[in-house]
Amino acid sequence: MTGTLGCNLLFAQNTVVDSLKNKLSRHTQQDTARVNLLNTLAIEIRRFDRRQMIPYTEEALRLSQKLNYEKGEGRAMSNKALIAYDSLDFNNVFSEFEKGQKILERIDDKEGLALLLRYRGRAYLDEGQYVETLDDYLKAIKLADETGNIKLSIDVKSNVGYLYNVIGDDNKAIPYYTEALNQSIKIGYQSGMAGAYNAMGKTFKTEGKYTEALDAYKKGLEIEIEQKRPESIAIAYGNIGDVYERMGNYREAFDNINRFLVYYRSKSKIEDRKSWGEWLLGRAFLHSGAADSGLYYGKHSLLLARQANYRQYLREVTQLIAESAAELKKYDTAYTYLLLSSHYKDSLNGEEMSRRTAMLQANNDLDKKQTEIELQKAKIRKERALLVMVLGGFVSVILISVILLRNNRQKQKANLLLQKQKQEIDKKAAELAEQKDNLEQSHRNMELLGDIGRKITSSLSVETIIGTVYDNVNALMDASVFGIGIYHEDTKYIDFPATYENGVALPAYSNSIYEENRFASLCFISGKEIVMADLQTEYKNYLQDVLVPKQGQQPVSLIYLPLKAKDKMFGVITVQSFQKNAYSEYHLYMLRTIAIYAAIALENAESYKKLNQTVDSLQKTQSQLIQSEKMASLGELTAGIAHEIQNPLNFVNNFSEVNTELIDELQEETNKGNLELVRSIAKDIKENEQKIVHHGKRADAIVKSMLQHTRSSSGKKEATDLNMLADEYLRLAYHGLRAKDKSFNATMKTDFDESIGNINIIPQDIGRVVLNLINNAFYAVDEKKKQNLNACPDDAVGRGYEPTVLVSTKKTNGKVEISVKDNGNGIPQKVLDKIFQPFFTTKPTGQGTGLGLSLSYDIVKAHGGELKVETKHVAGLPVETSSQAGSEFIIVLPVN
Questions:
Q1: CB 265 within 8 A of CB 284
Q2: Do 414 and 430 sit in the same domain of this protein?
């Protein structure tokens, strides 16, 4: 199928909708039949355009209320709730469903109620309320079966399969969608087959069986195309694109994901679907080598998700942004979004685990208890009916006895029977009360496990995690001995850093995973639970011999559970008791759930450790790059420093020679007794000595400045004369370039604001920034001069062009600005946005590292300032028309 054909099918109309519209146009009578048509049409047309169902629903509701037609009103209220759901108006969704439910229950419209429960179950699923979702779905199946609506029953069974897919329980998902598929095939129900194939595809995709997932999704797509259901077609394309992306087939991935987005980009108020599609697109771009596009779509996906409060994929979206930024060497951005992804991971994992725990508990206990309660209630109703009948018989006996004065023995028997019936009813009531207490206890357990999970997963320290797990396990069961073993891949050992016996910490110990006579090793290698009620009688099921503990007593009952998250083994957890039969199914269930939390927490701690190691490595690399850049700039300064030191040294040498001559002359005049001339010579010597000291200090300052430039920054701010700093680096840079290239020449201009005074800065760092900007300015004007000379070789002065660099300072509005301005060619717009990126340079290979402006930008930012650029680019024009070209870099620093 071609892409164009696929897109056209997304917007095709359905024959069912057309048929219903024709019937509605012919049925103009304002009666209940029109209401039913309106409600049915609203549901069908929702599959194609959610907004189109609004007028039909509103008319159905108005007409139902006018006719006092409660069935139509209840179903219209259910449709109205769907409109709120499609508009992401979750504040009103459940209240609208509740209104419709009350009406449908009152008139006992089981089919309408089943539809409502199915739709409300989906809303609960999107809100993460899995227990409520399952409850609504199971009730809907029961009602659909009772009314003989097999198609509705099939649809809801596929929904239940999808629900179990969401919570990761594929074993429970498979029977539901398999039954839905078989029933659909049996009765030829195409939509049911499509729904079952979709649930099946999700299961295979989750398990990494991509070929099987593609097959299931494509079978569903074929049916949706045949049924002409555009939204379902679009979703199928999205799922297929997702699978292709995971397989690395990016051509097919882009094709299918774009078909998905073609449909949803034309719709409003469905930012959640758009967010998911753009996340898929960003993944495909990143993994196919276009990290910049991956970053763009990742950020836009995050924006849409926040607008729609769509939290399900926040962890994955922020991970995509971080990976794309890292690929582009935007390490600050990568680090920021990695931390954000870790935060979402902790938060969403905690919430998800709480929901899944509640779902598991509900699945294991609530249905069973509810069934038992219903059976007991039915029995009580039967017994109460019998009691009423017996009471009726008893009254008859009394009347007959009064009238006939007979049957005293029957009266006694009736009394005994009544007493017995009352005792049995009281007994059943007590049993119901006990079961109610059990249900309430189960609910409390769910809440308790949710709280425990949040506590465990809130830490990123292994020691804290182990301590938190121990405290909570010890409160729930006999944990006379407790330990968590952490697996280390490099040594193939399991370390037990903190094992407790009777509340006392035992020394840490380790054992190899290949030690066959260790329960911990066996549990880890097999990935299976070890549960024993009596060690002495049951150990042979696992080991040849029981090892005597190095510390502490020998336990009698024990549990070992693997710590596993995302198919990765992190270690084992164990609780042990000195009593036989210490652990029940309840304890095992609670420990299993806590083990899942502990594995997630250990995974988070490991990820956080790796993240910090990555950050440390990046910081070290950055420091090395900074030092390299400093040494490169030092090389450029060396000639300038030599020139600057030579001047004061010449003065020192000259004045020293003059003083030597003056001292000889002083001795001669002293011997002659010419005191007046002696005093004059002595004065000259003193003045010369002052000049020698002045120029010696000048040379000393230049050397110190050079050392400061090469030394790692102390990080301490000092009161610094910015004007002197800028002037010094201007001259050093100029003479350094002159020493390397005698043909280099440029006019240097300064315009310093003397009111600035001293400013608190790190002088080595800001000096480095100023030097870099000045060197770049000199490079720019020299390049332009060479271009002009090459273009006009007969004109020795390059058609009148005078290379000029202006360094200025000024104080304004509580800030200080240092400006470096040149009259070069300026910066082209296409590279202007990249000049502050690390390793970007326009200089020929070997002439620039691409780090100067990037490091300068970071240094100024660290000072609380800003590095700006203003430029006008002119290329390939004569000097007369390009005189206004050039660039100005401005360092803005706060005064305080």
A1: no
A2: yes
Give yes or no for a contact between 70 and 30, defined as CB atoms under 8 angstroms apart: no
DSSP for 408-451, written as a single string: HHHHHHHHHHHHHHHHHHHHHHHHHHHHHHHHHHHHHHHHHHHH
Residue 74 lies in a domain: no
> Collapsing DSSP states into helix, strand and coil, what is residue 481?
strand
Q: Which amino acid is it at 474?
A: N
Q: What is the CATH number of the domain that holds 811?
A: 3.30.565.10
Please give the Cα distance from 213 to 242 (Å, whole number).
10
For residue 894, give the amino acid letter.
P
Residues 431 and 469 in one domain: no
Q: Provide the 3-class DSSP secondary structure of residue 547.
A: coil
* Residues 276-331: tens digit of each pLDDT: 888 899 989 999 888 888 899 888 888 887 776 666 667 788 888 888 888 888 87
Q: What are the C-alpha distances in Å from 488 to residues 161, 274, 393, 510?
A: 37, 42, 79, 10
Looking at the fold, whether 770 and 811 belong to one and the same domain comes out as yes
Q: Which of 43, 80, 88 is nearest to 61 (CA)?
A: 80
Domain count, the chain: 4
pTM passes above 0.85: no
Of the candidates 425, 457, 489, which is a domain's last residue?
Answer: 457
Q: Are residues 441 and 506 in the same domain?
A: no
577 close to 480: Cβ distance less than 8 angstroms: yes
Q: Where in the sequence is the domain holding 409, given as residue range(s)?
A: 361-457
Which of 609, 611, 605, 315 lies closest to 468, judged by CA?
605
How far is the C-alpha of 219 from the C-alpha of 216, rounded, in Å?
5
Cβ-in-10-Å burial (0-12, 13-18, 19+) of 823 comes to buried
Q: Summarize pLDDT for 827-873 with one digit per residue, the tens.
A: 888 888 788 776 667 776 556 656 678 788 888 888 889 999 998 87
For the chain, state the CA radius of gyration. 42
CB atoms within 10 A of CB 505: 12
Among 441, 457, 473, residue at a domain's last position: 457
